[in-house]
Amino acid sequence: xxxxxxxxxQMGKKKRRSVYLLALLQLVAGSVFAxxxxxxxxxxxxxxDKPVAWFVMVATFTPFTDIAYVILSAWQNEKEYSSQTWRxxxxxxxxxxxxxxxxxxxxxxxxxxxxxxxxxxxxxPAFLSKDIRTNIWQINQAFGKETHxxxxxxxxxxxxEILSAFLAFLLFAILVYSxxxxxxxxxxxxxxxxxxxxxKLVRFVIMIILIFIVIVLTNNLGGLLNQLRWGDTxxxxxxFAESNLVMALIDIILGSINIWLLKDFxxxx
Length: 269
Hints:
Blueprint: H1 4-39, H2 53-60, H3 62-81, H4 84-87, H5 93-123, H6 130-145, H7 149-156, H8 159-192, H9 199-226, H10 236-264
Helix pairs in contact: 1-2, 1-3, 1-5, 2-5, 3-5, 8-9, 8-10, 9-10
């Protein structure tokens, strides 16, 4: 039997190619627009702001790159579910499913780290500006005079809520991939029991119906769980805990459905 770690690493390597490609495209696009803004007359940046043009333009493309990664990685996930090569790997359907989704999420986090690195590098030219260096020096001076600075930082960014927010992000990412997989596998499974004639049209109609069903069930489940509040939701950690519980339960339900479909109905082609 193939181990979960080995399968996870192999799937991660394949998805990492997309990470490098998207990061490179973001850097190239941001650099091209930054050069245009830097050398154009009456452009988007004044002379004092031009040192940060590279950083700003690369950062501007960040959300588009992230959205592109979600779309591309979701497509890769579904392609691997249908790949006969991947499905012949001697491993259980549950481990296969988890390795596929988690490898996409880990590579998404890796893309974020690359984007942070690009942000640091592209901000370096800003230090060539005397005005920016002066502003940074003044900020450092203000921080140095603030005796309770780190306490204020701790109060503004409580570690518990930050970790809860990160958990919420992971659960939401799993939810997005799980919903896409549920729609794909269930529609294919239903279509397999129907005549081949007009199968594409039938699958499209089934997909629309399933999307509607998922939305209704998700809203109803969320409303039901919201009635089970056990405390004052003005507390940030408690509010996060309730929200994370809802998403975790939905993830488990959809994941169970997907694993069942993969195990008993869906085969690689």
